[in-house]
Specification:
This protein is an alpha/beta fold. The protein is built from eight helices and 17 strands. It has two domains: 236 residues, QueA-like (3-Layer(aba) Sandwich); 76 residues, QueA-like (Thrombin, subunit H, Beta Barrel). Strands 2-1-17-16-14-3-12-13-15 form a nine-stranded mixed β-sheet.
């Protein structure tokens, strides 16, 4: 299976630069994956597709302000994304641009104060040693880690909008974006309908957004990410009539278990899901529109079927849906089969488990 098979043309003007307000006023495309029917609604209508006894599963990991905009001695701007804490004041990071940055170089803030020293360059990463406290980094300099395709400087408001309303704990360097559409009132409405709401924590790291660099999809290796599921939430998921995973991070976490049974556990998952994978623990998927050829797109194609998914993407583009992190939503649900059908790719599976 080749990466280019999952490419599609995404005009830059279709990429949402800001979220809509209120959060649940965005568009929601409904895909009945067994019949092929496609319906266009608003996200606030999602309760119409949930039933008593269902359980929606949310990732409550909290996005941290890990994006920094610093300067070199030459005056050139360097955008930093802190990815992993190695020890007190020492972090692994991604930088743009990074090619000319040298070991020993000190990066400064906008007033010229030295903030971090580059102590190592390793496998496309910069290892930084902070020259100020971590609290200064995160409280005064840290910005929301908006993806690079959102072509603007992060604003103070993004610290709120690029965060789910139910974020609690954890350390994510990107948002679990399928959950950005929920409001407190909508979650109450869902509960009032008799639908369970379970929470898992998967700290979104590089594994989620790391591009597929190989031509052959099967050769791509996901980087592992930390997850945690409590006993209460595992029981809530296991007794559900249907499990609706909110986002690809939730899906990969739930599917990391070998059988249709979720257990309380803390660990890491590097599960890579692509077409041909047989799902065990997820019955419906709520997600966003994803980048061409990305791992979240392949997971969605695995759940929906490539032909049907790309048909839905084509409709969404024609109807001026907003794409990617701050864009519109998609709900893929099962339905009794009718005469309309779309064939999935040839079935095969591969698990990369923790």
């Amino acid at each position: 299976m080749y990466r280019e098979e999952y490419a599609y043309e995404l005009p830059s003007e279709k990429i949402a630069l800001y979220p809509v307000e209120p959060r649940d006023s965005c568009n929601l495309i409904i895909i009945h994956k067994d019949s092929g029917e496609i319906v266009h609604r608003k996200f606030s209508d999602i309760c119409d597709y949930l039933e008593p006894g269902d359980c929606i599963v949310l990732n409550d990991s909290k996005v941290q302000p890990v994006r920094l905009i610093l300067r070199r001695n030459t005056g050139g701007i360097v955008e930093i994304l802190l990815t992993h804490r190695l020890s007190e004041g020492v972090w692994t990071s991604l930088a743009r641009p990074s090619k000319r940055i040298k070991i020993g170089e000190k990066l400064q803030d906008e007033v010229g104060q030295s903030i971090a020293e580059v102590i190592e360059k390793k496998e496309g990463h910069l290892i930084l040693k902070f020259l100020v406290s971590e609290s200064t980094i995160f409280d005064k300099l840290g910005l929301a880690p908006l993806p690079a395709y959102i072509d603007r400087r992060p604003e103070k408001k993004d610290l709120e909008t690029y965060q789910t309303v139910y974020a609690r704990n954890g350390f994510s360097i990107a948002a679990p974006t399928a959950g950005l559409h929920f409001t407190v009132d909508l979650l109450k409405k869902i509960r009032d309908k008799g639908v369970g709401i379970a929470y898992i924590q998967l700290d979104v790291g590089e594994g989620t957004f790391r591009p597929i660099a190989t031509d052959n999809v099967e050769e791509h290796v996901m980087l592992s990410e930390y997850f945690r599921i409590t006993r209460y939430n595992a029981e809530l998921i296991n007794k559900a009539r249907r499990v609706i995973a909110v986002g690809t991070t939730v899906t990969r976490t739930l599917e990391s278990f070998s059988q249709r049974n979720v257990i309380a556990q803390t660990g890491e998952t590097g599960l890579f899901i692509y077409p041909g994978y047989k799902f065990k623990n997820v019955d419906a998927l709520l997600t966003n529109f994803h980048q061409p050829g990305s791992t979240p797109l392949l997971l969605t194609a695995a759940f929906c079927g490539k032909d049907l998914l790309f048909h839905a993407y084509s409709e969404a583009l024609k109807r001026d849906y907003r794409f990617l992190s701050y864009g519109d939503g998609m709900l893929i649900i099962p339905q009794k089969k009718t005469s309309v059908s779309f064939e999935d790719p040839v079935q095969f599976s591969r698990n990369i488990s923790s």
